[in-house]
Design brief:
It contains five helices and no strands. By secondary structure, the protein is mostly helical.
């Protein structure tokens, strides 16, 4: 895997999170969750792209039913990606480890009417 997601750090099961800890990082729970959601989408897209590239190596031009069921390498690659932590778990862990941050954008609000 080119991204080297930390499999041992991110949880593979459902975990109850302390929302106060997440909110304290940005001062607002919604900003924090927005940052986590955006990072999760990035991770998901990266993982999907990597999986597609790896599985494309095994694509055959002919549709032989026997080859589809006998391709153990393809099955092992798919199982590996299924066993990885979910992208949102990785994103939350990155956020809590200060690898992801909330960037404040200045919105120039004009008070003139």
């Amino acid at each position: 895997m080119s991204q080297n997601y930390k499999v041992s750090v991110a949880e593979r099961t459902t975990v109850t999170r302390d929302l106060d800890q997440i909110a304290n990082k940005s001062g607002n729970i919604y900003k924090s969750l927005n940052a986590i959601a955006k990072r999760s989408n990035q991770i998901s897209a990266d993982m999907r792209e990597e999986l597609t590239k790896k599985l494309a190596e095994f694509a055959s031009s002919t549709d032989n039913l026997e080859e589809i069921f006998e391709n153990r390498e393809q099955i092992e690659i798919s199982k590996y990606y299924e066993s990885l932590p979910k992208p949102v778990s990785i994103a939350i862990q990155e956020y809590m480890d200060d690898k992801v941050y909330v960037r404040e954008t200045e919105v120039a609000a004009s008070a003139e009417i």
